[in-house]
Amino acid sequence: MIKSVIWPITACIFCIFPSIATQTPDVAKLIGTPYRADGVRNKLGQYTQFGDTTRIFDTPGLNCSGLVVEIARMALGRDIAIDDVMAMRPENAHLHAKNGPDWDFGWRLIMNISDGLPRRVLMPGNKTVSAADIITDAPIGYAISAPETWTELPNRLTAGHLYLISFNTTGRRAGYNTIHYHVGAIYVDENATPWLYQTTSNGGAVNRRNLATPDGQASFQSAFHDTGGNKKYILVVEVDLPRDNKNK
Question: Which terminus of the chain has a lower count of CB atoms within 10 Å, N or C?
């Protein structure tokens, strides 16, 4: 299993630029944490790897998946174990060999993180669906290149929630029909600003961008433009924050 999960964890490919605007301190303190190709913190606070949890690093380092785990620990107040976020899910289509192994890793990660909490999936057309109802082997969610995405989605991102994001597309890797290849998290600050947090090898460190501004949206679309006729999507899972963690 370890070998099968390494490459989707490390497939975080796009650089975004840090912002200096005010943000909830516990989340914002992650900005600048160095990127590590396989990097996550364990429940003891040690920097380790998804693929080898016995290896402990003296210096900080997170990849996209490790960052989302860390943000969820802070925002949701959950004691999240590394093995738990990598677990196969009952409704999971992992065994469909036509999609290749771990085609759904990003989706599985955010579902495992939010398991047991009030959550829902935001879909185009201002629709909301149950998270358990949308497993599919086709790309799903908001099309990044669609203008209507940026007219609608930012207005749906509200304080009192954490938004877990799975980036998915077709044709990204040989043998895979669809793949959830990257993850991120959106946290809305006390000024009602929706910040997308992520980290990539190109960016080199944890960073964020404002999804409510035209510049932030345009930069996002440019970085994740459709390639080779394959459209790229973001699947957005809205999770209710604990009452004492909700921004006012």
Answer: C
Helix (H, G, I), strand (E, B) or coil at 215: helix
pLDDT digits (tens, 9 = 90+) for 153-198: 999 999 999 999 999 998 667 667 788 889 999 999 989 999 999 9
Phi, psi angle pair for 81, to nearest 5°: -90, 145
Closest by CA to 41, choosing from 72, 4, 7, 5, is 72
φ, ψ dihedrals at 40, nearest 5° = -160, 160
Look-up: residue for tokens 């999936």?
121
The three-point CA angle 46-112-93 to 5° equals 130
Of the candidate ranges 87-96, 119-128, 184-193, 210-219, the one whose mean pLDDT is the lowest: 87-96
What is the Cα–Cα distance from 67 to 41, expressed in whole angstroms?
Answer: 9
SS3 of 184, please? strand
Give residue-wise pLDDT tens across range 200-213. 998 899 999 899 99
Is residue 220 classed as helix, strand or coil in its secondary structure?
Answer: helix
The amino acid that residue 124 corresponds to is P
- Contact present, 180 and 103 (Cβ < 8 Å): yes
